[in-house]
Structures are given as structure tokens and as C-alpha cells.
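Sorry to interrupt, but I need a hand with the structure work. Can you supply me with one protein entry, sequence and fold together? No commentary is needed, just the two lines. Leave the record below and I will have a look.
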Amino acid sequence: MPTRQPTHNLREITNHKCIKECNTEKRKETTNNDICKVTKSEFDKLPVRCVGNWAYQKIYRLNQYFGIFSNGMKNKWLGLNYIELCSGPGRCILRKTGEEIDGTSLSILRHPSFNFIKKAIFIDNDETIIKILNKRIKHLSINNAYSIKGNYNDINTLKDIFSDLNKDFLNLFFIDPTDCSVPFDTIKFIKEYFTNVDFIMNFPYGTDLIRNLPGAILNVTWPSRVKYLKFLGSKDFFERKEVKNLAVSPNKQQLVLEFFIEYIKNLKLIGLEYCESEQVKNYYMLLFASGNSKGLEFWKKSQNISPNDQREIIFS
């Protein structure tokens, strides 16, 4: 009989006060920065973030890589660090079903392989979220992790935060914005600062980008134009004839694909040669990027097992 693979549950529980099925307009009333104002966690009585049901796939895929990364590299480096940008409060509610689960930050902290991590830092720009997550970290009695305020647009602040990390360690960054707003210069700075770094990034093409990219290309005063230019890292992309032609065509998916391909090209130019992505429904890509082929090998291996409905992480 084959041995059952070790699992890591996300402490799923039904939140009975969740009103479920909140659409975009309803969430303007019931949330603040996506933090639910209607209910708190039934698990620890702290605030929770309202998310789409597809968030489970993101949490699952991140944890799959983290397990293989930390186990595979634990004896090959002086140490391993984990850093998360846009961390959130640690617990979330799937708004369609009312299921409450650990978010990315808490799932990593509770991962069986977290004991191989020397230090973990969770960065968010919301003071309230930072306080919530730090309370949850304290509840877990973890001494080598903390949440701190930081803005991904402010490289000097990030530099101060990163000074608490050993540059000689191998670093895993998870970057999880809700839109395309993390400047490419920030990614470049992180790569240059640490040298030895793997990235997993949320590339939200199916929400923010597909709605606004055509207008941003065709109209120099479009509100999102500067944000997208900073995110992409290419000054001339919006001026290319073929890009402008796509912006006026009905095939918006092809335009977004070209934007994505350009982003990958720019990552490779700064030394992140090994890139691959996994689609999460029709909303975003989880993009892996590394300067080392071993990282890509681990990523491919970790994504062989697809997300399931058991609310548990299965480690290979």
C-alpha cells in the first residue's frame, strides 16, 4: 500500500455570519480595504479578508512551492528567508461559500517546513492589517517572523526593512498585489539587493488590466497609464504600432498576452531568466521567476499536483 503523503490543512471553518455572494457594489458597504466589517474570524475572533473562491488555488500553489523550496535548499545555503509583499491579515473568507481559511501568510507560518526558515517578514501598507497579522503571529508563538508597514513604491523604506535580513541567504519573495501597481523598479531593486532570490508574483491580468489597458494605450491621460508603464518597465511598449492596433481590436486577451510577454522579457533582462506561470481561473497568473534553473525545476515539480477541494496542501 502506498504511503499517504503528508498534508497541511488551512484550518477551514464555516463563518456563519458571512452574508455570502457579495458583489463589487455590496463589498463597498461591507468591507474596508477588503477587510470584512460584517464578521470576524470564528477561529480567533480577529478580522478577516473577503476574497474570491479562487484564492484557495493561489494559497495552494504557493505552499506547494514553499515545501519543495525549503526542503530542497535547507542544507545548501547558510539560511533561507521568506518575504511577502501585500501580505494581508492572515485569515480570509471565501465570499461565495462563507468558508474561512488561512491566507498566504498564515499558511506559510504554519507550514511544516517553516522551521527551515531563518526569518520571515510580511510587508503591508495598511497599519490595521499589520497589527492583525502580528497578533496572529504572536498566537503561534513564532519568534522569527513579523509584519511591518512598507510601501512597494518607496525603495528607501524597503531597504531599511531588508537590512534585517542576511544578504547571503537564499530569499523567497511572494508579491501579491490586487492590481498591476508594483513598479518594475521595485522588482529590479530586490533582485539587485539580494542577488539570490526567487519570486512568485500575482499578475492580475483578468481584472484591472483587461478593463483598462486598451484605454491606457490609446489615451495619454488615462488614469492607469502611468501605473502600467511603471509596472511593465518598458517605456516604448505603448508606442508600438502593433500594440496600438491590438488596443483598438476586439481581442483584448491578445493585448494582455503581449503585455505579459513583455513583462517576462523585462524580467529576463534583469537576470530572472527562468520564468513560468500558472493560471488561476480567469483572474490572474501566478508567475514564478528565478535566476537559477534549480528554482524553475522546483516550481515545475511543485505544480504537478493541482489544487483539490479538500482544503489541504499535499506535499510531494
About this structure: The two ends are 17 Å apart (CA to CA). The longest helix spans residues 55-73.
